[in-house]
Specification:
Rossmann fold; binds fructose -6-phosphate; alpha/beta; eight-stranded antiparallel sheet; six-stranded antiparallel sheet; Glutamine Phosphoribosylpyrophosphate, subunit 1, domain 1
Length: 608
């Protein structure tokens, strides 16, 4: 996930403030970084691929001067991590510099139009259109602030944007669907003036960037424009001043990188609405009833998924999507695939891997490649080995995940696999019914995060020594994932089963102290069968927690219900998983486990 810092300083320490601000955002992950400063001699920009140490090296000896500046750490989404693709981006004359988080959906037509007008581009990024649009508006006679507004008014997509312009002692910023927060410097008593005129003024994508300078923050909202000069002015899209109110952040230093959450895992669970918007952004067109993922895949007769752990669960879900659309599809554990490779024929082989570096998955993909298969990586990591080695890549765009337990990347994988099946094999009818559900998905996840009673259920069952999870069809991978999440972070024994399998053996383990989490969505025959399975465990006095949308009788036999909004069954599976993530999190938290770094586990498993 990219990071933004901006500062209108009082002395000559703005450059250091920017670089330190970027260092404070390093936890978000990045692959290039840069800064731009406006001083008496105009605009200076310094940026580089790699880590901040590389940026510091490049700055050495140059010492660009100026009290107004912006900085950025980039996590690649359009184009690989290179010096040219690093932010800030500039216009042709080198007088406008822009940093951006998010995705500009209409950058391609904007770029073509600007190129026709003679603008020259240096990067592969969507961001670079913005400085050129500002340049065009300035050339048309607009003053800096209206020129910035005019440029932003042409953008579609999600953005947090900050710009500086040579000759102007201001930072211009705008936000839509991507966070942006201002920090107001304080006077010697620690009191910030409401308009920020008492001290330096800061801008960032996240408070940690400037937390060491001030705890006084003002959160911008979608549609807001901000101008930072000696003070801070916030206006709406029509240019009318709005009052966003100043808040005081109470977090201690350790919590800072977690934006106030106790753990990265909790933060990442709460980032899922944002991550899903990023994944879907610019890829669904409800009007046309189409999904566009910009992939040119060859004609395939079938699909084989290879993956490990959570990504394997996403693959089981993906395989079911393809089978439902009439395409033969199977999910394989990557570690088994390489030693006993099935016939591939004309199948497309899809490696699902958030890191793109899992050795088992890479080895399975290489085996498929050796046998002549077309390969596709579904990954979160641009320029990862899977991205580089596969014939195609579909990015899930979840932003970096720090907690070892995968949460938002699983949601991103499910969303991306829906896009893949929609774009390649689904009928027009299926597209029409699924697209509205995908559009509502971020809001539905947010509704669960706002109202979940998972914490109470975790409190009730934290002492159990074993937990079972059951589900059918698309809800089966969710049961497996619910169990995996709980076992890896709480160290409690948890197992997931296909709901119909319970009676073929595992039922012998069910006791009156074994909570059974049953995922049951919809009202069809499958749901009724799972309700039947719930009755089987209820008859053995086991406590039942139904994860349900209320369209079946599960609630009648359950001791507790975790509610899921009514939606398309595919979206429902993702929502049910959010409830189970929260249960796992709270059980582990109650037990005092080191949630972000569970024992014996690593974020990226690079050995077979
Ligand atoms: C569980 C978890 C692991 C990973 C697995 C594959 O929370 O994170 O099970 O899913 O190690 O990792 P990737 O997706 O990076 O290939």
């Amino acid at each position: 996930m990219c990071g933004i810092i901006g500062c209108v300083g009082r002395g000559d320490d703005t450059l250091e403030t920017l670089v330190e601000g970027l260092a404070n955002l390093e936890y978000r992950g990045y692959d290039s970084a840069g800064v731009a400063l406006v001083g008496a001699d105009g605009l200076s920009v310094c940026k580089t691929e790699g880590e901040l140490s590389a940026l510091r090296d490049r700055l050495e000896g140059r010492d660009p001067a100026g009290t107004v500046g912006i900085g950025h750490t980039r996590w690649s989404t359009h184009g690989p991590p290179t010096d040219a693709n690093a932010h800030p981006h500039t216009d042709c004359a080198g007088e406008v510099a822009v940093v951006h988080n998010g995705i500009i959906e209409n950058y391609q037509p904007l770029r073509e139009e600007l190129e026709e007008q003679g603008h020259e581009f240096e990067s592969d990024t969507d961001t670079e259109v913005v400085p050129h649009l500002i340049e065009a508006a300035l050339a048309g006679g607009a003053r800096p602030e209206p020129a910035f507004r005019e440029a932003i008014g042409q953008l579609e997509g999600s953005y947090a944007i900050a710009a500086v312009i040579a000759g102007s002692r201001e930072i211009f910023a705008a936000r839509n669907d991507s966070p942006l927060v201002a920090g107001l410097g304080q006077d010697s008593e620690g009191v910030p003036p409401q308009d920020g005129t008492g001290g330096p003024v800061f801008l960032a994508s996240d408070v940690p960037a400037f937390r060491e300078h001030t705890p006084h923050v003002l959160y911008l909202e979608d549609g807001d424009f901000a101008t930072l000069d000696g003070g801070l002015t916030v206006t709406d899209t029509d240019g009318v001043a709005v009052d966003r109110g100043v808040e005081t952040v109470e977090w201690d230093a350790e919590q800072t990188g977690k934006s106030g959450y106790d753990h990265f895992m909790r933060k990442e669970i709460h980032e899922q609405p944002w991550a899903l918007r990023q994944c879907l952004s610019g890829r669904v067109d409800e009007l046309r009833g189409a999904a566009d993922i910009d992939l040119e895949l060859g004609a395939t007769l079938g699909v084989q998924f290879v993956a490990a752990g959570t990504s394997y669960h996403a693959s089981l879900y993906g395989a079911e999507l393809f089978r439902r659309a009439g395409v033969p599809a199977q999910a394989f554990l990557a570690s088994e695939y390489a030693t006993s490779t099935p016939p591939i024929g004309d199948d497309l082989v899809i490696g699902v891997t958030q890191s793109g570096e899992t050795a088992d998955t890479l080895s399975a993909l290489r085996e498929a490649d050796r046998r002549g298969a077309e390969t596709l990586a579904v990954t979160n990591t641009v320029s990862s080995t899977a991205d580089r080695e596969c014939d195609h890549t579909l990015l899930i765009r979840s932003g970096p995940e720090i907690g070892v337990a995968a949460t938002k990347t699983f949601a991103g994988q499910l969303a991306a696999l829906n896009l893949l099946s929609l774009a390649t094999v689904e009928s027009q009818h299926d597209r029409r019914t699924l697209l509205p559900a995908l559009r509502d998905l971020p809001g539905d996840v947010q509704a669960i995060l706002n109202d979940s009673n998972a914490e109470g259920i975790a409190d009730a069952y934290e002492d159990a020594s074993a937990y079972f999870f059951i589900g059918r069809g698309l809800q089966y991978p969710v049961a497996l994932e619910g169990a995996l999440k709980l076992k890896e972070i709480s160290y409690k024994h948890a197992e997931g089963f296909a709901a119909g399998e319970l009676k073929h053996g595992p039922l012998a383990l069910v006791e009156d102290s074994t909570p059974v989490f049953a995922v049951v969505l919809g009202s069809g025959e499958r749901a009724q069968k799972t309700v039947g399975n719930i009755k089987e465990v209820e008859a053995r006095d086991a406590p039942v927690v139904a994860v349900t949308d209320g369209r079946n009788d599960a609630h009648l036999y359950a001791d507790h219900v975790l509610e899921v909004p009514e939606t398309h069954p595919r979206a429902g599976a993702l929502l049910a998983n959010v409830q189970l993530q929260l249960v796992a999190y709270h059980v582990a938290d109650n037990l005092g486990r080191p949630i972000d770094k569970p024992r014996h586990l690593a974020k990226s498993v690079t050995v077979e």
